[in-house]
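Input record, target 12 of the design panel.
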């Protein structure tokens, strides 16, 4: 089988498409014939070695996959089932989805929602599933469309694109923050009511700013997250899920103790199964398949390696689907 294999030694860190013996697949009670994977920010960090995402070598990257169960010793999976996987340390400590086959724990797999094809599920991927977890966090903390504008940072990326599309469909007034002015038409096509330059949020700001946002979805971190919190309205919620700008949070407690702002952390990797299922059910209901097609493009397995560097450089729009069989 073909797979992207990451390895390193004293001289080099390398990622390349390799022929891998199926007998080398790691332990697991389900073998999946992979149809599609995707290229997430974390996958790009792993492929390039820009961050120590990979914990053991050699490693097949790919934190997402969609495919068909080929064999199973797990009671919840049977041969022929179409399944999706997001996270669970796959692509970091366990071989992942950028391969033609994967051996996994059945507890990690969920059924593919009938609303989506495997290709569409990977156009959503961890990025889209994380975006929906953020939307659920806003809803669970009482943020409603009538309360005012909702900010989405890193809006032209994978998480941001899905967040913009879903929130707009649900009736929220979405303001999209991006550093790429050329993406304005794309973001407005997804439903954004307005665009702001990321520079308005990415520098050091005041402990409290003018109240503007009823809520926010942040995939950026650092000063951007701090400024989003500082400009959120009384009682609002900021759902934080990423660190594209940095993992630091140069903020004060002022928004939280003077305005009652909630900072809701969103983890997609080890999210419990019931909430995963809820997120995918909501994606099936609230994400238009036609919108999925507008926010994605498809590449081959070999093309994923150079695409990783482009993604880290901010040159990739929306979602990247990888056909592992090409």
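The sequence produced for target 12 reads:
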């Amino acid at each position: 089988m073909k797979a992207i294999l990451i390895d390193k030694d004293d001289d080099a860190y390398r990622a390349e498409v390799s022929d891998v013996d199926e007998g080398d697949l790691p332990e697991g009670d389900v073998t999946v014939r992979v149809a599609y994977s995707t290229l997430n920010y974390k996958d790009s960090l792993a492929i390039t070695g820009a961050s120590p995402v990979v914990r053991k070598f050699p490693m097949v990257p790919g934190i997402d996959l969609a495919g068909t169960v080929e064999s199973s010793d797990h009671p919840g999976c049977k041969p022929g089932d179409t399944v999706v996987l997001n996270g669970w340390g796959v692509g970091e400590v366990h071989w992942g989805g950028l391969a033609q086959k994967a051996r996994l724990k059945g507890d990690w797999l969920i059924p593919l929602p009938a609303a989506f094809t495997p290709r569409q599920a990977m156009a959503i991927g961890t990025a889209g599933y994380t975006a929906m977890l953020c939307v659920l966090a806003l809803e669970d903390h009482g943020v409603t469309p009538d309360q005012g504008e909702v900010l989405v940072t890193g809006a032209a990326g994978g998480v941001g694109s899905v967040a913009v599309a879903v929130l707009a469909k649900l009736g929220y007034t979405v303001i999209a923050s991006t550093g790429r002015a050329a993406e304005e038409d794309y973001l407005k096509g997804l439903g954004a009511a307005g665009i702001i330059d990321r520079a308005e949020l990415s520098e050091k700001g005041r402990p409290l700013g003018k109240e503007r946002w009823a809520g926010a979805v942040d995939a950026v971190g650092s000063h951007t997250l701090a400024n989003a919190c500082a400009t959120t309205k009384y009682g609002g919620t900021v759902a934080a899920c990423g660190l594209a700008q940095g993992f630091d949070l140069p903020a004060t407690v002022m928004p939280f103790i003077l305005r009652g702002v909630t900072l809701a952390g969103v983890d997609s990797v080890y999210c419990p199964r019931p909430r995963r299922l809820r997120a995918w059910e909501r994606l099936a209901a609230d994400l238009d398949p036609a919108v999925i097609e507008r926010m994605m493009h498809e590449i081959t397995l070999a093309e994923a390696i150079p695409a990783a560097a482009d993604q880290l450089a901010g040159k990739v729009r929306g979602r990247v689907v990888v056909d592992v069989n090409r």
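The first strand starts at residue 2 and ends at 8.
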